[in-house]
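User: Structure please.
Assistant: Input sequence and predicted structure:
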Amino acid sequence: MLAIEIIAIVIGCMEVLNLVLLFFMIFLEKKQPQSIIAWMTILTFLPAIGFIFYILLGSGLSLRTRRMIRRKKLSNLDLLKKFDWRGTLADLKNSPELISDPQFAKFCFSKGAYICLNNNVKIYNYGLEKIAALKEDLLNAKESINMEYYIFADDKIGREIMDILLKKAKEGVKIKFLYDSVGCKKTGRRFFNRLRKVGGEVAEFFPPFMHIRWINLKLNYRNHRKIVVIDGKIAYTGGINIRDDHMGLKKNLSPWRDTHIRIEGSGVFPLQNIFLNDWCYASNDHQSTKDYIKEGYFPTPKKRGETTVQVLTSGPASRSPDLKQAFIKLLTCAKERVYIQTPYFVPDDSIYEAIKIALDSGLDVRLMLPKKPDKKVVYLPTISYAEEMMKLGVKVYLYNGFLHSKTLIVDSDKLVIGTCNIDNRSFHLNFEDDVYMYSRKLNREYSRQFEEDMKNSTPADEQYFKRYTFFNRLVQAFYRLLSPLL
C-alpha cells in the first residue's frame, strides 16, 4: 500500500508540474499553439523525462537575456549619420533599375533592413569554391577579420582556415572569432585557444554552464549564422560551414550542394553590424558603434557593382519572426514563379497557406530537397510535408545527394540566399540572416544552377512516396506532431 501511495504522490506531483509548465507556456512565454500541443504530448507520455527536456530545450530565452541582447545592439543611427551609403524609399520609387519591388523593399526596410546600393555579389555553389576564395581574401587582409560560424570543425578544412587566422594574427591583423556552443560542441576549446595565444579575440555564443558541455540551459537557441567580414570591405554569408562534409569530402552525404555569397560594397555594412551585435553580447564588449567606426571597422564604401541588397535577420530575442514574414510576403508578392531550396522543410499553417495561395494564383512553385538525409529526425516530417506539397501542385525534386542550400528565386528579378531553413527552428529559435538581392543578372545565374540541380534530382511523384511503409508513416505522423520543436 505504501508503494502505491508513493506512486500516486509522484504522479500527482508530475501533474502539478505539467499544469505549472502549461501556465508558463500560455501566459508568460506566450508560445504558439502548435508548440504548446507538441510539448503537452511529450509531458503526457514522458512526464518525468519530458519535464527535464522542457527545462533544457523548451523554456524560452529569459527576459534578462533578451534585454541584454537588445541592450548590446549597436546603433544604426551612428552609421547613417556618418555615411551616405544607403538608398531611401523615396529614391527608389521611380528607379526600377535599382530595385524591382519597392513594396517588398519597404517591408524589409520597416524591419531594419537598409537598402544597400552598388554591390558586387559573387555566388558559390560548392564548398571548395567558397573556401578557395575565402582563403585568398583572408591572406590579403590588412586590418581586421571578423568571423562567426555555427560549425567550425577541427578537421582538414578547419585547420587550414585556423592556420591562416593564426598567421594573420601574428602579422598584427585584428581578429574577432565567434563560434556557436552547440554547433562546435565536438571542437575542443584548445583548438580555438590557439588563436587567443597569438593575440586573436575569441568568444563562445551561449556557452554551457560552468563550461560543462552537457549542461547548457540555452541548448535550443543556436547562432546559425555564417558571417566573415574582412577589412570592413568584403563579406561572406550563406549555408557553408567550416567542416569537411560541407566540402563534399565525406561519401555518405556526397555530393554536397550548398550556396554561399561574397559581397563587396555597401552591403558589407549590415553584415558587419550583425557580427558586431553578436560579438558585443557574447564577449561582453562595451564598445559603441562610434568606437568601431573610429577603429576602422566601417570604412567608407565604394561603388563595386550594380546589385541592390537588403540584409534581414531574426532570432529568439526578436519581437517578431521577420524572416518568416519576409518569406510569406515574397510568396504573396510573386507574379510568376517561386523556386525554393532548403534541406529542412517543416512549414507551419501560415507557410502552408501562403504556398497554397501562390499555387491558386497560377504561380510556378518548385521545391527542392535533399534525397540523402543528414538528420533523420527532421527528414521524416520533411518528406511527409513534401508529399502534401506535391499533392497541392508544387513540383517537388529530391537532389541526388545532400542539398544544404537555403535559397529562394522569385520571378526574374529577386534572389534570396542566406542561412535560414523553412522550419520552426530557423524562424523562431535560431539566430539567422538572409540577403535579399534585386538583380536580374544574379536571378538568371542562379536559375541556371537550379536547372542543373534539377538534372541531378529525382522528381517526386505519387509513385515515389508509395515506397514509404505504414510504419514509416506512423513515425512521420509522430514526428510531425513534434515538428514545432525540431
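The chain has three domains: 2-59, 65-85+122-304, 322-485.
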